[in-house]
Amino acid sequence: MRLQGFRKKMQLLDPFTYVDRLVIAKLEKQSERTKFIVFCACLLFLAIASISLVPMFSNSIPLLVILIAGLSLYYYTNRKEGLNWAIYISFAFVFAFVIFSAIGLLLGSSSPMVIVLSGSMEPLYHRGDVIILQGATAQNLQGAEVSLAEETLAETSFADFAAADYLGSGQIKKIKFTATGQEIDVTEEGSIVVYWSALLQKPIIHRVAAKLHAADGWFVLTKGDANPQLDQDCGEVVYGRPAKSCIQLYPVKVQELQGKALGSIPFIGCFKLWLLDDLGSLIAKREIPPDFTGLC
Description:
The protein has 2 domains: 2-107, no CATH class; 113-265, no CATH class. Strands 1, 2, 3, 7, 8, 9, 12 and 13 form an 8-stranded mixed beta sheet that branches. It has a 3-stranded antiparallel beta sheet with strand order 4-5-6, with no helix packed on it. The chain has 6 helices and 13 strands. Helix 2 (15-27) runs antiparallel to helix 5, helix 3 runs antiparallel to helix 4 and helix 3 (32-53) packs parallel to helix 5 (79-107). Strand 7 and strand 8 form a beta hairpin. It is elongated. The chain is of the alpha+beta class. It starts with a helix and ends in an 11-residue tail after the last helix.
């Protein structure tokens, strides 16, 4: 009897218990036309939610197509169960968004979790790891600090205020700042941050190589541990076009960082990568993405 009572109490903590009681139970009494409208509304909501609501699962067009096609086929063969699953999945997105937002509020980041998409931070992070972020500020970021009080760095290319010193192997060794003559070593001691790369159209998880205090605010230069060059070492940038391959045209303003790495959960993001990146690449290009490492 005590065990049964405990189970009933645990059910009260399950949000889907209330979906059953307050939504599905009442919907069973409605007309078929109303149920069909609700089903279509769920599909529309899922289309919006899977693309935009939870940033961690953005750019999920392949998943969206599979999900909507599967639900539509299920609804066609079994209207009751198809409608119920559409409702359950819709509320799952709602609950995920609420939890995601609550974690973000707690940690001070609009994107408290991101998935590692490449091997640029190996061996520390691997493709498929989920990184937990906290808000980033100039005060809580670690990295070699450089004062460029006379410089404005917003939309200023790296080549206009600094130069990189590379070893014979092509690995960056030092950064020399033109205005002050200051030199700093590039190490693996800076904070790990996440920012959005407009060039690559995806979030980048890299380490702070330098923290710059300029006339127009605080900025960072970044680098992947497994990459030989700075993200911002683009050569001369003319009309938004870099002279050489790079990741980010300009230094990243601290206020535009998505967050600072607080910890990681290994490989749980692999499912998203298998279903979206890897499957999408196979369908569109008939090949596995170049960042695929044999696991995800």
